[in-house]
Amino acid sequence: MDKRPILVAACLVVLLPAMGGSEDVKPWDPALGTATITGSVKFEGKKPRMRPIDMAGADEKCAELHGGKRLKPETVVVNDNGTLRNVFVWVKKGVEGWSFPLPEGNALLNQKGCWYLPHVQGMRKGQSLAVRTSDPTAHNVHGYAKVNRPFNRSQPPGAADI
């Protein structure tokens, strides 16, 4: 079974909420009520095998942070109960005509153990991203976007967020 459509769908889930909508919207009034939306994505079929990442050849400090242990990539992570990790669930219909305030502060990606945490980061249109390093080694931070300019910056240990 080809798992690429699942990966493409997971990527779209990240990108679709960031797309703009109608400009004729009214602000959300929290006094009208609140709700919590939850959901899960089930994986069917044989779990994909992820080839471990050997950090020893790339950066000795990264390898030391993990005691030489090889990490598994998180491209597709199937939990023991068959659900997928690193996916988003969102409301597709029913919020037309409303605007919602952006979360306070930046969305944050942190390099910790030479690994971005969280592995998947959802953002809203207009929200800013901060990239932090908590590692004792320099990292190259390279971002691509359709609308914003791409960037490629070095981030040494202890550097300010990018």
Quick structural summary:
By secondary structure, this protein is α/β, with parallel strands linked by helices.
Structural commentary:
- With 162 residues, the protein is of the alpha/beta class.
- Helix content is 11%, strand content 16%.
- A 3-stranded mixed sheet has the order 4-3-5, with no helix packed on it. Strands 1-2 form a two-stranded parallel ribbon.
- Strand 3 (107-111) and strand 4 form a beta hairpin.
- The longest helix is centred in the first third of the chain and has 12 residues, at 4-15.
- The protein is globular and about 55 Å long.
Distance between the termini: 40 Å
Would you report the number of β strands?
7
Structural class given helices, strands, pairing? alpha/beta
Oligomer: single chain
Strands of the biggest beta sheet: in what spatial order?
4-3-5
> How big a fraction of the residues is strand?
15-25%
Mean pLDDT: 83
Uncertain regions: pLDDT < 50 for 5+ in a row? Answer: 4-22
Largest sheet entry? 3 strands, mixed
In percent, how helical is the residue content?
10-25%
What's the helix count? Answer: 2
Report the principal-axis shape.
globular
The run of helices and strands is HEHEEEEEE
**Radius of gyration, whole Å:** 19 Å
